[in-house]
Design brief:
Layout: E1 3-9, H1 13-23, E2 28-35, H2 42-55, E3 63-65, H3 104-114, E4 120-123, H4 128-136, H5 138-141, E5 146-150, H6 165-168, H7 171-178, E6 184-187, H8 189-192, E7 196-197, H9 199-206, H10 210-222, E8 232-233, H11 235-244, E9 249-254, E10 256-258, E11 268-270, E12 282-288, H12 292-302
Parallel strand pairs: 1-2, 1-4, 2-3, 4-5, 5-6, 6-12
Antiparallel strand pairs: 7-8, 9-12, 10-11
Helix pairs in contact: 1-10, 1-11, 3-4, 4-7, 9-10, 9-12
The chain binds beta-D-ribofuranose (BDR) and calcium ion.
């Protein structure tokens, strides 16, 4: 039976590819998409989520807008990697519909309660919506299957030497997510920097269906931030992939905390060696099988 999932995201080129991966994979059923401020302001990320679902011909999947700013700190929507709209590059039409009237955290709660099977949350943006959901609906949060998030790294970052973007954009929300009692799997840069789509994959995807063409167009823009790399890391797709095929990643249980202070702000402190003696509160992805780009592009090529 397909695992029901909800993607909470900030599209975002790799978020868009993560959504298409979910739609292309019978192992999961995408029940809803919620948006958060992150790669771009909220009005762009929610519109982009709808534009991607429009492109894939999925008007049936509900989309809701969530937090338009982090819990505590000032908003940070950089615009350098994904462009000012969050999805610069491809020529996608405006969204065909408005988002749902419900706030994202209410839609998450509704979907968790309505699902006979435990729903898996896949956050691929800052964790503001997830922290707010867990605070507002603790009883419903206890019924969530797992949270498989893209974010963090064990010991390095991509915004600062310490911090990965999704954690850095709202460290307070990330800290709450890791310490809320949710069953958290952290898919960080340790593995996503080895999850590359290379030019040869894009050449093939350009000749595939509409999703393949969109993916190639997305990577064509996104790749400008990865000059000198063998390809572009499709970070967010790796979190969705972990739900589709758990054998792709090696997970290590450990205690994870998030630095919310001024020096190491946004760092995910992963106690992989058990130094603190604190009980594990997460599984951290520490290895990925080779050939993720082949696996991902095979999947995307299946979707028209
Ligand atoms: C994460 O930050 C964003 O730029 C991407 O969409 C991804 O979720 C990678 O650090
Ligand atoms: Ca993202």
């Amino acid at each position: 039976m397909a695992v029901p999932i909800l993607i909470d995201c900030d599209p975002g080129h790799d978020d868009a590819i993560a959504i298409m991966l979910a739609l292309a994979s019978p192992e999961v059923e995408l029940r809803a998409v919620t948006a958060v401020s992150g790669n771009a302001p909220l009005h762009h990320t929610v519109a982009n989520a709808i534009r991607v679902l429009d492109h894939a011909g999925r008007p049936d999947i509900p989309v809701a807008a969530g937090a338009d700013r982090p819990l505590v700190q000032d908003p940070f929507t950089p615009g350098d990697v994904h462009g000012p709209t969050g999805l610069d590059g491809p020529d996608l039409p405006p969204p065909s519909r408005e988002p749902a009237a419900a706030h994202a955290i209410d839609l998450i709660a509704e979907q968790v309660e309505a699902s006979p099977e435990p729903l898996v949350l896949v956050p691929t943006g800052p964790l503001t919506n997830i922290a707010l959901f867990a605070a507002r609906y603790p009883d419903v949060a206890a019924r969530v299957g797992r949270v498989v998030l893209m974010g963090g790294a064990a010991g390095f970052g991509n915004v600062t030497p310490n911090a990965e973007f999704n954690i850095w954009a709202d460290p307070d929300a990330a800290r709450r997510t890791f310490t809320s009692g949710l069953d958290v799997t952290m898919v960080g840069l340790d593995v996503t920097h080895r999850a590359l789509i290379e030019p040869s994959h894009c050449e093939r995807l350009l000749r595939a269906g509409r999703a393949g063409k969109l993916t190639a167009d997305l990577v064509s823009y996104y790749g400008r931030s990865h000059t000198g790399w063998a390809g572009s890391p499709i970070h967010d797709a790796v979190a969705v992939a972990q739900v589709i095929d758990p054998g792709l990643l090696t997970l290590t249980e450990c205690h994870v905390d998030v630095d919310c202070g001024p020096v190491g702000r946004g760092r995910t402190i992963c106690d992989l060696n058990g130094t603190t003696g604190l009980p594990a509160n997460a599984r951290v992805a520490t290895d990925i099988v080779p050939g993720f780009g082949d696996w991902l592009s095979d999947r995307i090529a299946r979707l028209d």
